[in-house]
Write a structure and sequence with these properties.
By secondary structure, the protein is an alpha+beta fold. It is built from 4 helices and 11 strands; from the N terminus they run βαβββαββαβαββββ. Strand 8 and strand 9 form a beta hairpin. The protein starts with a strand and ends in a 13-residue tail after the last strand.
Length: 212
Amino acid sequence: MKVDRSLNLTQGELQKGDKEYSDWHWFEQGNAPVKVVDWNDNDMPRMLIECGKLIRLHLRMPRARDNKGHPRRERDTMIEFSKEVSGNSHIAYDPNQPDERLYLLIGGRAKEALKRRFWDENGVDPLPLKEMARLAGGKHGKRGDYPNVMVKPAGVLTAVVYHTTKKEDGPSYYIHKMGELSHHFPILCVDQRGRLWLAGGNYTCPTPGITD
């Protein structure tokens, strides 16, 4: 699936998208069940390549001031999406961005709950997305090519779980830990519309899968 916000792609862009999707899902070129979806969001890139249906996010939330426990003993908070929400939510990457930036596309009414929890009930002052990325560091933190969106941090993203079909694995769940090698973790952010964003980090999205 190519997620296209404009449905105005040239033939060359469509061919590139087909190849990106086919290669990423380990299909031989031309055999992938590619379809184009208009996401209708002008803050997103013109074309995104779907990695899979978004199932669960693992994040490390800020520690309370009175929490004196050792950081390594802290447990991740999980955002788990229902089957209905996952069916219309995707994790996707931008093939035209040098570091293949990831995007989290949340469908249905889930954005209302995300807005309430991580924006309305979050007392932290919002920052521009590119400034949040700079604070997170990594390859993506060094680039200023983020959309002009104000966000609040939900926590540090430690892992993402998604479901998709790849040629040799068939339908499978995949979990990718973030910052395994570089220790540059992206910050999971939310804007006032309940959209999720990843700020910073050192990951890329080559054919074998999301890597860091």
